[in-house]
Amino acid sequence: MEFHLTKLRDVHLIQLEPARDDRGFFARTFCVEEFAAHGLETNFPQHSISFSARKGTLRGMHYQLEPHSEAKLVRCTQGVILDVIIDIRPDSPTYRCWQEFELSSANRRQLYIPKGFAHGFQTLSDDVEVNYLISTPYAPQLARGIRYDDPAFGISWPQPVTQVSEKDLRWPDFP
Ligand SMILES: Cc1cn([C@H]2C[C@H](O)[C@@H](COP(=O)(O)OP(=O)(O)O[C@H]3O[C@@H](C)C(=O)[C@@H](O)[C@H]3O)O2)c(=O)[nH]c1=O
């Protein structure tokens, strides 16, 4: 795997390194040794998947409070998404900054999101599957969110929003 730093501190965009042959290829998507060598989380007790039927679907921007904050490794295995993360670590030099990444089944990029980020995405195609490795068990009582259109951040989503959960419409303005 190739690990690329991003403009947000501690975030890595991970490119697969396929070993190709006549059949196709084989590639690692996660490796304890490689992740540890880059100082990344290696314990992911929860693996999850979401499926979104319609282009324009918006999920996010989600995070969990301590002691349940989560590191996530995100990969789009069907379709295309615009993935967006916001650094909400008050002591970070990139606090309140956000960045977007196109993840798709075609580019097979993975995004490593450390603890202390809000995460969301919009689907850019129909029938989208997103896979997660997550470092911390789900704790709904500690789940929080930032509204996708919170004026504090001004994220420009590329598509009209076709689907969004009631929960995600109700997140309060970020302080
Ligand atoms: C996130 C999550 C949800 N659920 C349940 C709660 C609810 O009944 C149903 C759907 O949950 P949500 O509406 O929160 O699903 P969704 O909006 O897809 O939530 C996801 O959004 C993206 C952006 C992330 O970063 C993920 O970590 C996760 O928060 O699944 C779990 O059982 N475990 C989980 O880890």
TrEMBL record:
Enzyme Commission designation: 5.1.3.13
Enzyme class, first EC level, given as a word: isomerase
GO biological process: dTDP-rhamnose biosynthetic process; polysaccharide biosynthetic process
Top-rank taxon, per record: Bacteria
Positions of the record's site feature: Participates in a stacking interaction with the thymidine ring of dTDP-4-oxo-6-deoxyglucose: Y138
Record's function text: Catalyzes the epimerization of the C3' and C5'positions of dTDP-6-deoxy-D-xylo-4-hexulose, forming dTDP-6-deoxy-L-lyxo-4-hexulose.
InterPro entries cross-referenced by the UniProt entry: RmlC-like (IPR000888), RmlC-like_jellyroll (IPR014710), RmlC_Cupin_sf (IPR011051)
Assembly notes: Homodimer.
Molecular function per GO: dTDP-4-dehydrorhamnose 3,5-epimerase activity
The protein's annotated pathway: Carbohydrate biosynthesis; dTDP-L-rhamnose biosynthesis
Keywords: Isomerase
Protein name as annotated: dTDP-4-dehydrorhamnose 3,5-epimerase
SUPFAM superfamilies, per the entry: RmlC-like cupins (SSF51182)
Phylogenetic lineage: Bacteria, Pseudomonadati, Pseudomonadota, Alphaproteobacteria, Hyphomicrobiales
A cellular component term, taken from the record's GO annotations: cytosol
Reaction(s) catalysed (UniProt annotation): dTDP-4-dehydro-6-deoxy-alpha-D-glucose = dTDP-4-dehydro-beta-L-rhamnose
Protein family membership: Belongs to the dTDP-4-dehydrorhamnose 3,5-epimerase family.
One protein family per Pfam: dTDP_sugar_isom
Active site as annotated: H62, Y132
Species this chain originates from: Bradyrhizobium canariense
Keyword Iron-sulfur: no
